[in-house]
TrEMBL record:
Catalyses which reaction(s): ATP + protein L-histidine = ADP + protein N-phospho-L-histidine
Annotated GO MF terms: ATP binding
Membrane topology: Multi-pass membrane protein
Name used for this protein in its record: histidine kinase
KW Magnesium (keyword) present: no
EC numbers on record: 2.7.13.3
Entry keywords, A to Z: ATP-binding, Cell membrane, Kinase, Membrane, Nucleotide-binding, Phosphoprotein, Transferase, Transmembrane, Transmembrane helix, Two-component regulatory system
Occurrences of domain Histidine kinase (ranges): 20-224
Top enzyme category: transferase
Chief location category: membrane
Subcellular locations according to the entry: Cell membrane
Span within the parent record: 190 to 414 of 414
Length: 225
């Protein structure tokens, strides 16, 4: 128990530190990006190539900063009754083009009538990280499916991918701080998702087979409407 409290305290301090650095760095980045976009319109071909490169690296810096800000973000700012299918549809729409860019189809199997009471942005963030991982694990031509079901008073959201899967060892390390197997990964996304789901009294379970794919099952308590 004491170790758990110590760990929570450390995570809090780390989160605050990460947030302040990320926040401070984000502002100058936004300014640089804005001017580059303006300059891009008035340049020759060669220079336009350079600015594209700079913009794409800025985009990468931005996404790293977002990972750190999400890691530190205060939980549950606006709790309300949510229609789960709407949130899932929003997440799938948001990541559809990211999937296309990677040659991965992102598909939704919707189900109406499931309501939960929670913070919408937090839930979206938790799902975005998981769907993003599914897309990133999946080779061109693969499929990511986000499905909805009801089971024993819970809304069940499954994220299924036909990606590279994980070994037992990898599964055991998943969700620990900074664990990543990607060149450009931060190793924060899964931890953020699992923390959010836990704070919603939900559960997340992984089933994965190397070379075949992964399925994450997120269960969240339903509410009365
Ligand atoms: P990041 O995405 O920045 O690497 P995450 O915490 O989101 O950090 O994920 C940690 C690691 O877990 C990933 O680098 C990857 O190796 C593994 N992982 C997560 N989700 C999946 C998945 N759906 N399929 C295969 N590997 C996964
Ligand atoms: Mg990730």
């Amino acid at each position: 128990m004491r170790r758990e409290i110590q760990r929570a305290e450390k995570l809090n301090i780390l989160g605050e530190l990460a947030a302040s650095v990320a926040h401070e760095v984000r502002n100058p980045l936004t300014v640089v990006k804005g001017f580059l976009q303006i300059m891009n319109e008035e340049q020759n071909e060669k220079h336009r190539g350079y600015t594209q490169l700079i913009l794409s690296e800025l985009g990468r810096a931005e996404s790293i900063i977002n990972d750190y800000l999400n890691f530190a973000k205060p939980q549950m700012q606006k709790v309300a009754v949510l229609h789960v299918v709407d949130v899932v549809n929003e997440v799938v729409t948001l990541l559809y083009s990211y999937g296309m860019k990677n040659g991965v189809e992102v598909e939704c199997c919707p189900l109406d009538g499931l309501y939960i009471r929670t913070d919408k942005n937090q839930l979206k963030q938790a799902l975005i990280n998981l769907v993003k991982n599914a897309i990133e694990a999946t080779p061109t031509g693969g499929l990511v499916q986000v499905c909805l079901a009801e089971e024993k008073g819970m809304a069940v959201i499954t994220i299924h991918d036909t990606g590279k899967g994980m070994s037992k060892d990898q599964l055991a390390r998943l969700g620990s701080l900074f664990y990543t197997t990607k060149d450009k990964g931060t190793g924060l996304g899964t931890m953020v998702s699992l923390r959010i789901i836990e704070s919603m009294n939900g559960k997340a379970q992984y089933h994965s087979t190397p070379g075949v794919g992964t399925e994450v099952t997120v269960s969240l308590p339903l509410c009365d409407v």
